[in-house]
Every structure is written in C-alpha cells, then in structure tokens.
Amino acid sequence: MDEFVQTTLAGLVPAQKKGEGPGFRWQWLEQGVIRLTPHSKVTRSLVLSAGIHGNETAPVEILSQVLDALWRGEIVLCWDVLVVLGNPLALQTGKRYQACDLNRMFGGRWEAFEPGTERARAELLEQAVGGFFANSPPVRWHLDMHTAIRGSLHPRFGVLPARNAAWPAAFLQWLEMAGLEALVFHQTPGGTFTHFTAQYYDALSCTMELGKAMPFGQNNLNAFSAARHALEELLGKGPEAVPVVQQPVARCYKVSQQLTRTGEAFILHIPDDTVNFTPFSKGELLAEDGDNKQVVQQETEYVLFPNRLVAPGLRAGLMLAEIPHP
Fold first, then answer.
1. Where does the Succinylglutamate desuccinylase/Aspartoacylase catalytic domain start and stop, copy by copy (predicted)?
2. Taking the CA of residue 181 as centre, how many other CA atoms within 13 Å lie in the half-sphere pointing to its CB?
3. Residue 154 assigned as binding residue
4. 146 is in an annotated binding site
5. Most buried of the four, 22, 35, 77, 82, by CB within 10 Å?
C-alpha cells in the first residue's frame, strides 16, 4: 500500500490497477484515489482523505502507515473504504495549493473558479465520492486529516460541518479517542470536502486538524500516535471499538460569525501571529470595509483560521462561541 502513496507523489500511473490484499480487494481509480473492499459483507463505508493541502504531510505519512498495517494483515478491514490523497500536484511541490485553495471549492463551487489544477481536482473528487457512496454500505463516515501552520491553544481539534440531525455519540467519542481536544460545529454549509460529503451524502464528516504542518520527512509521527491508533482500531473493529465515556473531555464551540474579505479595502484587525482559539471580548473590532464593521457580539468569542490574505469573497476567519458538549 505504501506503493500507492509513492506512486501518487511521483505522479505516475501504476502498472497494476487492481489486486487482492489480506481479506480485501483493492482498485486504483484515479491518481491518489484507491478503493478497498472487504471480501466479507460490511455495513459501513468510509472516505479517508489527506493531502487536500499539499504542505500538510503528516496525515499522508499516517495514512501510509495505516495502509501498510492493512496490507500486512494486522488489521481485518470491516469498512468499504475510499482512500483519497486530495491534491497530488500540491503534495509533489510541497505547496498548500497550485492556484486556488481546493478546500473552498466543493459542492459545485469549483464552477466559479478559472480552469486549473484545483478546479479539475475538485470536480474529479466529487465524482469519485459520488460513485463510491452510490454503491457502498449506508452507514457513511468521512475523516479528512489536516495539519496547520498557525499555532493553536487546542493543538488538535475537529471542525464538523452543518448538520440538521444530532451527532451520534460514538462518532464524537471516536474523535476524542483520536486525540482531538476541541470540536467546532458549523451552522451553515461551506465549500470544504467534509461539508460536501455531509450535505450531499449524509456522511458523518469531520475535518481533523492534528498538529503542525511540516515537510515530508520532518514530522515527528509519535505526536500523531493517538490518531493513528484510533484509525487502526476503527478500520478493524468499527465504531464498536470506541470506549464509552461518562465525561467527555473535548471543549466544544459553534461558529458564531464569519469574517469574509468583502473587497480590496477590507481590513482584518487580528494580528498575523494570533493563534487559533484566542479569545476576544464583546465589542472588540474584528474587521472592517468602509462603513461595514464586524465586532465581537457575545461576551467572549474565539478566533479560528484568521487570514487577511485570502482572495476577495473568501473567508478571512471564523469567530466561535463555546457551547456545552452535545
């Protein structure tokens, strides 16, 4: 299975596009997209993705380790799995993206972008996921693994897309088992990969921020051991592997407002070195564009992903309010 990762990073097409592993069949579908189907009947399907941003390499290395364990027969696969390396060209060059942020383009939003690498990749991944979920078991999860350049008061956290129904306890508890210290709940749809799978396929989806972004070969993979162990347990045992806890440990937040760069005159009043989850007090000025000003509306709000350099029309940050654990 490591050959899948290496072939993708080299930009090559494998000579063999399907085969047998210990207890499963594998099929290479596209560059960076492979499907693993257990020989035995299963009732769960999982999209497992990494490398949506090309400078976030630790999740790719974690994924390679987990795939190797599957190939060695150390894990008896109990899911139908679609493995996705999101942006192969960006991974090859070590850049976050080639022209546009791929993780803003899903749900058909790619149609608004100029033709290019990321636009084509977003369309392809939507088709690949649609084909997978169209003939896979009905219990659907999507785990999209990332790392971050910006520091964070919660080094490992999850961002969950808008969802009308309650989140199942086993899903949230698995995220905590994977080492996530905070969970952020979106209230409205967006353009991320996990928003797409949740909105269109009712998947239980989470963007997992697992630590610091480093180049290939420079990651301390011991720091990601909780996530790797949780993935191995999940793939081999399913949600039943999650221990029942009486007292959840993750801090929980909901998105209270979005800061959007509305034009060239937009000013973000959050310093570039501000870490994720930094608190701001009610009334503090966050951003402005002419007469339009955004301020902290609640007693305390916490910033996530502030970025004054995004293109006009894109998100320049999120503000969060803490909520009880659901």
1. 44-233
2. 9
3. no
4. yes
5. 82
